What does this fold into?
Amino acid sequence: MTAAERVQYRKTIVVGAGPIGLTAALALKNIGLDVAVLESESEGRQRPGSRAIYLHNATLKFFEEISPGLGFQLGENGIIWPVKRTFFRGEEVYFRQYAPPTPGVLPHFTSLPQVEAERYIYQACLDAGIEFFWNTPVKDVKTRKNGVEIVTENGDIWKADYCIAADGARSVVRRSLGLQLEGPRTKDAFIVVDVKEDQHDPLPLERTFHYQHPAVDGRNVLFVPFAGGWRIDLQLLSEDDMEDFGGVDGVRKWLPKVMDPKYVDRVTWVSTYQFYQAVANSYTDEFARVVLAGEAAHLFAPFGARGMNSGVPDAVLAARAIGKATKAETPEEAMSYVRQAAEERRTAGLYNRDSAGIALEHIQGNSPYMNAKRETAAFLVPLVPTTMGRWLDEGPYGPKTGSPLVSTKY
Ligand SMILES: Cc1cc2nc3c(=O)[nH]c(=O)nc-3n(C[C@H](O)[C@H](O)[C@H](O)COP(=O)(O)OP(=O)(O)OC[C@H]3O[C@@H](n4cnc5c(N)ncnc54)[C@H](O)[C@@H]3O)c2cc1C
It folds into this structure.
């Protein structure tokens, strides 16, 4: 192959075929832009488990807009748990039952494993005729006034007018452009376990959160059902050694204390996390030719399910801004569209980081003030059940209302 043959051009390039890269590619294609996806791993790779299981209605709406039928497909293949319960040291402090979803309308949310959601989104990309280049790790990216140049590990050069960087938390694109994630790693550690449901004798579909579960020496435990299984999230105490609780052996010690012991033999994935709470200092480069999306742009603790749910609007709004930029009459006008979208999503990123931080503090914070607040709320539940129980129940989600400054907060 000659040097000239190793230079390829596409109008737009997406780096990374995780859920956000797939979404970006669909959104670009949907507005008629030529797009190629460069992905470092192979097609059919095993994706990590224990990640997103909860997609908001707003996310499903975006999918429906960029690929008609996809939002409904994700909705129909997930489950909608109708009940949530919260316990404080073994006593129920909150119960809420939701009406069943209205047929023919996108549900309020859907709960299915991220690997399955990715499968549906990838199939939609194939149906849309999007080009994929697997085993193609990107090594370096440079931007100029008139476009982007991407160099892959094997020395190939890809030129494009615009690029959406969805290459995840360790984003090579972000680093090549000199952009940085800013924010701390949380001190709290979590063991996240997925188990397969027993289809002959399933548990009721109830999302259940325990503050200070008595069976595990006062650690918090969250149970979330998803299509085909359960997510169990154990929140360690500051003095705990992660190795004692993580891994298959660690899980065998504590899981049977909080769940029917049969689930120990139904574990499908175990992960140990200390979450980052970080947002990139800018979502675009100096020439507004690359836009960061998803975990390339931000990392949040998962309380409130803000990661993929905010990565999807990052990708869709970046694609729409690029669409407008390609039709702009002047370079300045083009840049302004991209910069505006990047800034709007960064503002949303900061908001989501803070909200996930509030959720963490709500459930895990150990300041005397927060301890007293939780104790008081639990004590007052019999007197004012709705207000106090609801406040305790909101812990795993963080604040529900958006900042007035952010039009697309999810
Ligand atoms: C325990 C847990 C629970 C979660 N729960 C939820 C939830 O319920 N709801 C929610 O919305 N979010 C949730 N999240 C967050 C969600 O999983 C992430 O936001 C999402 O996976 C980010 O997708 P992404 O496409 O940005 O990154 P990734 O999934 O990391 O994809 C990045 C892709 O880029 C590729 N890549 C990397 N480097 C290169 C390179 N140099 N060249 C080419 N390709 C490259 C990778 O191989 C990968 O395919 C959760 C996360 C965790 C850890």
User: Anything to note?
Assistant: The first helix runs from residue 19 to 30. The chain has eleven helices and 19 strands. The radius of gyration is 22 Å. Residues 15-21, 38-41, 50-54, 114, 137-138, 166-168, 172, 192, 273, 294-295, 302, 305, 307-309, 311 surround flavin-adenine dinucleotide (CB under 6 Å).
